[in-house]
Structures are given as C-alpha cells and as structure tokens.
UniProtKB/TrEMBL annotation:
InterPro entries in alphabetical order: DNA-bd_dom_put_sf
Organism of this sequence: Streptomyces tamarix
Name of this protein: MarR family transcriptional regulator
Organism placement in taxonomy: Bacteria, Bacillati, Actinomycetota, Actinomycetes, Kitasatosporales
Length: 65
C-alpha cells in the first residue's frame, strides 16, 4: 500500500528534523523533487515521494530507521 497523504513544507521539515525554511531553501536550490500537487500556489508532496527522496539523499543520516 502506498502513502498518498500530501505533505507541505511543515510535514517534510518535521520528518527530516529541520525548520520549514530549510525545506523551502532545498526547493529553491533544486534539491527537492518536483511537487506532486500544487494548490493555490502552495506545493505539496506525497509522503512516499519524500520518503524515497530522503532514502536516496547523499549523506542521508536516517538510513536504516
């Protein structure tokens, strides 16, 4: 089963333990995947999209857990 829940900057930040502004900076610098959905100009990502991105990030500190 896939997790299709949509995450904003806030949920992504909580997942990777950084501030939402850090996640915004990642997007600005092309480090985040493209949003899965945009509503009223705000980007959202499926939880699975972010989990896959986190698992494949260089220097990932969250491997294995």
């Amino acid at each position: 089963m896939t997790d299709r829940m949509l995450w904003s900057y806030k949920e992504i930040a909580a997942h990777i333990r950084v501030q939402p502004d850090t996640v915004r900076s990642y997007r600005k610098h092309g480090l985040l995947p493209q949003p899965d959905h945009v509503e009223a100009g705000k980007p959202y990502w499926h939880a699975d999209t972010i989990r896959t991105w986190v698992a494949n990030r260089p220097g990932n500190r969250h491997r294995g857990g």
